[in-house]
Amino acid sequence: MKNDRPEYAVVRNDLLIRKVGDEVIVYDGENHTAHRLNGIAASVWQLLGDHKSVREICDALDQKDEELVCAILSEFQKSGLLTKIGSPLTDKNLISRRDLVKRIGASVALAAPFVTSVIVPSPASATSPPPPRQPQRRYRQQPK
Amino acid sequence: MSDWAASAKLQIFGVRIGIRGNALELFDRLMARVPLAWQRTGSTSTDRLYSVISNGPKRSAEPPRNSLFADGRLLFEGASWTDLGDAFESDLEFFIARRCSSFVFVHAGAVSWKGNAIIIPGPSHSGKTTLVQALLKAGAAYYSDEFAVLDTAGSLHGFPRQLAVRHNGTISRIAAERAGVQQRRPCLSTRLVILTAYKTGAHFQPKILSPGEAMLGLLQNTVAARRYPTLALSTLQKTVCGARGLGGMRGEARETAHTILRYLDEGSQSNHGH
Description:
The complex is a heterodimer of chains A (144) and B (274). Chain A has helices spanning 39-49, 54-60, 67-78, 97-104, 106-109; strands spanning 9-11, 16-20, 23-28, 33-37, 82-85, 115-119. With 144 residues, chain A is of the alpha+beta class. The longest helix of chain A has 12 residues, at 67-78. Chain A is globular, with a radius of gyration of 21 Å. Chain B is built from six helices and 16 strands. In chain B, helix 3 (128-137) packs across helix 6 (253-266) and helix 4 (211-219) packs antiparallel against helix 5 (229-241).
């Protein structure tokens, strides 16, 4: 039987990373998005950065099966944080929250979402709009 | 010979601003709208030059028309001094927040309570100014109702200005002095980051946020995060490392302010969560 689970994944190397407590904040300057990886996802991220395989990551996290790590990898992939994955994550091997609860138990699955993403605003959308004022010509030259 | 009645070159958080006017009264009105953190500078160049010109009435019955330019581009033209001041203040603050490369400007309300900084990031119309006002009435000290200014160590600096209070779609201004603003406030470590927005009928029952959630909330409201992402991330990382985060919808500002200050006073570790 073909094993369609990923064996390894490669993280993008053009991302800005900051560790905050046991979490990690990832900034993607290409897409102007920021991602918060929760504690378990941050551990997987760290191990991926150390070029560990999925099996090695499971061992390091004391996970007997690969369901949790695969679920985290699928969130990384959906968030655009990976450049390469050993076996493409198809609908078949993407794990839903419900399946995850069934397979590994509610306590770990409730740690999800593993990745929370926000759009980092452009300067104009991060400030209060100016007070309304009369319409005006915008580029009139200043008199000398 | 210069046609300008008065001019000044200022430095505000490292950004160099020039202001000049052909009428002293207009120039003084602009200077009154500059954030109080300015210093005069002898620098010959400016990052932005504002020129205000009183044109005088075209007919004797008309009020004088005033024009405001920024780097030669018309920002405002009209008789109202208040509107001119609003246009100037809005453009100046936005320019400083966008250009500044040594401080991080987060769109947020900011106060201090017993030497601890409280930052309330949020988009426009989320009720920041109302909550800042309620915190001031409860005894907190004003830092800003528009920008939390953070240095590279993650400490909060004041950005005192006139409070802009929205009511029924109009904006009214409360003078800085009336809000208890002092020109110099000490920089402070941040102890609390609050992610909240007003919702009719809600009661503020916040949940404790993780440092990552608090940092994401700050980053979402950081003006120059796209332009200076490394500075923004490093600064916010330091800001949240000594802070706690609270998040949740709020109702009445007074009740929320008391909950916030009580939480700080008690140093509570308990989760008020849902």
